[in-house]
From TrEMBL:
This is Saccharopine dehydrogenase NADP binding domain-containing protein. One of its GO terms (biological process) is glycolipid biosynthetic process. It comes from the Eukaryota. Belongs to the saccharopine dehydrogenase family. One of its GO terms (cellular component) is plasma membrane. The chain crosses the membrane at residues 274-293. Keywords: Membrane, Transmembrane, Transmembrane helix. Residues 8-132 form the Saccharopine dehydrogenase NADP binding domain.
Length: 413
């Protein structure tokens, strides 16, 4: 078999550049070739010269349907970093990949756009047995992985038990890029009803209750087996993560009649209940002012990076993310799962997670693992339903994440 091509669209973006550095020094570098595509030759040339590598480049606009088709056909997997995804017409790449049997991954966090892609291309991708996998960055691999691991840990020793309430608390040190700010603006420019903020927005099922539920400003959870209590404030990225975890749950449900009513929540980990209230209120007030008071927005924008910009490598290297998930179950045990990622969550961990997601689809799996059956059927999938143990092992083996998961006898909290 010839060496597979990994196509990178939006190769000039801030996020793609770190992904390329990672791929160019990867231990399996001789097992794949790269093809970089973007809008401007001079910018692509600069990327190549910074990398000091000989890599083919292709100038390609996403309005050029024929050009997109030809490039996609040549690749075995495409990674797309050109976002905001809805705004820059990622649909052209997704459509071509689904029709021509080229796998696709991205770091999209736009729920309404993912929902539209599911509606339009899930069946096409199934016909060609192609995996279309959005959300392969920090949004939402850690959330999807931590619940996957919790479920696996539980069912390895209690096969008939199921997760019920599962909550992840995030501690994060990170930065933000101009592309992410542009994406946030593009999402919030839509009427609220079209933003797809519900965790049920990516599946063809309706939520069990229709009661209006106010957001929890201060969540609390015991760490089973200890006296430690976790406090959580509102996490602005939670709605998208929850929608991805819910879609993974939906695929599990297709083979499992026994779901007891799985619930998933995410919070920022905070030191006390009062602080959680203050932080949650602060998040609401800040976003409220930013989106409804033009003068405030103008002032804040002066300090935010523009598209193409982001923090220095030195700053990004100091970043990290630590997650702790407590999952309740249908039996007398709880599951504690911890995940640690070194480096800026959005602009180091994201780049490595996305790279490993693409490699999971085209390189031989780590020994003892294989892609889940659903990956061979294709569709618009989630990171863990498409890549399962293969991605988990790749991320561990290449030092992208450290994970541990254990069962603890339920002490009654
Ligand atoms: N999920 C996560 O955890 C995560 C983390 C980081 C980033 N992201 C997302 O990744 C995306 C990229 O962020 P970034 O900061 O890397 O963005 P960026 O540096 O602003 O790069 C945007 C890219 O899109 C290209 N582009 C601009 N307009 C285009 C158009 N009309 N058609 C095709 N391509 C176009 C740009 O090409 P030129 O260079 O030619 O302008 C550039 O390559 C954003 O959506 C962001 O939210 C997600």
């Amino acid at each position: 078999m010839s060496t597979p091509y990994i196509g990178i669209y939006g190769a000039t973006s801030f996020t793609a550049r770190e992904c390329l550095t990672y791929l160019c020094s990867h231990s399996e570098k001789d097992k794949f070739q790269l093809s970089l595509a973007g809008r401007t030759q001079t910018k692509l040339d600069k990327v190549i010269s910074d990398l000091n590598e000989k890599i083919e480049t292709v100038v390609l606009l996403l309005t050029d349907e024929q050009g997109v088709k030809e490039w996609v056909k040549k690749c075995q997997v495409v990674i797309n970093f050109a976002g905001p995804y809805a705004l820059y017409n990622a649909e052209a790449l997704i459509k071509a990949c689904a029709e021509h049997g080229t796998h696709y991954v991205d770091v999209c966090g736009e729920a309404y756009f993912v929902a539209k892609m599911i509606e339009r291309y899930h069946d096409t991708a199934k016909k060609t047995k192609t995996c279309i996998v959005p959300a392969c960055g920090f949004d939402a691999v850690p959330s999807d992985l931590i619940v996957y691991l919790a479920r696996q840990t539980l069912q390895n020793s209690h096969p008939s038990a199921r997760l019920t309430k599962s909550t992840t608390f995030f501690s994060v040190r990170g930065t933000v890029s101009g592309g992410t700010i542009a994406t946030l603006r593009s999402t919030l420019s839509l009427p609220p009803s079209q933003r797809g903020g519900s965790q049920w927005s990516l599946i063809p099922l309706t939520p069990p209750t229709s009661k209006t539920k106010w957001p929890t400003f201060a969540a609390t959870e015991y760490v089973p087996g200890t006296k430690e209590k976790l406090y959580g404030a509102i996490f602005p990225f939670a709605p998208f993560d929850k929608a991805i975890v819910r879609r993974s749950w939906y695929f599990t449900l297709l083979h499992d009649e026994k779901d007891p009513g799985f619930r998933y929540e995410e919070y920022v980990k905070i030191g006390s209940v009062w602080l959680a209230w203050i932080v949650s209120l602060g998040v609401y007030v800040f976003f409220g002012l930013y989106f409804f008071v033009p003068l405030f927005r103008k002032l804040v924008d002066r300090f935010l990076p523009q598209p193409g910009q982001g923090a220095t490598l030195e700053k990004r290297k100091k970043g990290w993310a630590r997650l702790i998930n407590v999952s309740h179950t249908t039996t007398n045990v709880k599951v504690i799962t911890k995940l640690f990622a070194k480096g800026d969550p959005g602009y180091i961990a994201t780049c490595y997670m996305c790279a490993e997601s693409a490699l999971s689809l085209v390189l031989p799996p780590p020994s003892g693992t294989s892609l889940p059956d659903i990956a061979h059927q294709g569709g618009v999938l989630t990171p863990m339903t498409a890549l399962g143990d293969v991605l988990k092992e790749r991320l561990k083996r290449n030092g992208v994440v450290e994970v541990e998961s254990e069962l603890v006898i339920d002490s009654g909290h």
